[in-house]
């Protein structure tokens, strides 16, 4: 049985030590890590990055966004298995407001904030697409490229599925409820088997405000509270009224979706696929059933939120092409309920069933999907410890889910531990694995794969990014918060990192450590597994441990924590894609 390799064969590299505030990317002996694509680098033949962040909003529209997150590789030509030419597509999740403007200010008062700043902030969000090619032994970004593209918080998109055109989706600018401007807080992603990109809208609630002192109707109040609305990190509403809920109460219903677009067609219009439900989507992973119907798994990353699965109504015929996107418009969304005995069920979120009725506040199926969290509450799904990425093993079909942490588990007024969330005050997080007989199954078995801080081999905390490669290696990326990293109970884990796990033996080896203050999130390989790209997000986000040591970050000194990757004295830290290869040209991980 080729599946039962011994683990020294699956993981061949020598693990590296944890990094204690090193401002570099470190990989094992015999491997090379090169900075490939940084915030502000042009996607095509547009303007170069200015180290003092003086690029305009218009420049930013032609450059890599900030805060690189998940990425995917699409071979060129389309339909090939090319290992040396393709499209690299990635999310730009959010912003470091200390770094994006020249003055380092994230003050939103009228004296310092203006429409140009808002436009630049909106253009630094979204997705970027670059063309990459292996030429003369070196990977390059092709400039100019006719494929290169940015999606931002202002790109026109359509809405499809049950919520398209619903009353709750209509705004003054869009009385039909079918045309939305933009996508933001694009966390992780997915790829359909027909060759399109899926970007996931995660913490969309941090962009909208409303006057919480004003009385409003109980239904609206209940819905907004359930989606944790009320606080924004940004000030967009000052110059873009659609982010003011008092002026445009439905705009927020148009975010929190999975968005599909065809990377091979630069003119293609992105589509918000509402059948997959509205919540803080981390990523989306799929599995193909025996009869051709598909399952799409997605976690809602917030404390005590749920894991979901969407099963298509129709089968996929196995061919490529964006026309298959309509498979994402018809089907059933389920939420997971875990039992103490290791069994579990997928509970359907269907209007009229299981309490999803008018008496409980639902008007129709679109309402159930727009308020999927409230629907999952009613059917009795299991409240999880912040579900982050989900990945499907390409050979065994096992599903791995990272639960990153939940410090409130078991504290007063909150749910206590259960079998699937087995630790109160879950500081370090865990990974669970489930096994289903088919993608379309509505029952499954599950077990804890590893508890953070208690694994076999190198230790980690706060698992987030997950990816099983074609050899069956489970890559684990971590996101320890800068408020606790490199200190106290998190000291021994060091800087955020990426590890490789053997799903059969449970052995875990540390493969990569990131620079100071970063999170490691996003990993993809070429089909031959000889090229890997990994994203480094928010380097230089100030670890509190450095403040304890007297190192203070200020607008005048934004690089106190890190100035990776450029290491220029007047520079600033930049999220970036790192290219990883093996010096002998071999397969990554061996
Ligand atoms: Fe954007 Fe849950 O990480
Ligand atoms: Ca994440
Ligand atoms: Ca995270
Ligand atoms: Ca992040």
Automatic annotation (TrEMBL):
Biased composition (Basic and acidic residues): 581-590
Region of interest: Disordered: 554-590
Signal sequence, start to end: none
Membrane-crossing residue ranges in chain numbering: none
Xref: InterPro entries: PhoX, TAT_signal
Top-level lineage group: Bacteria
Listed name of the protein: PhoX family phosphatase
Organism of provenance: Methylophaga muralis
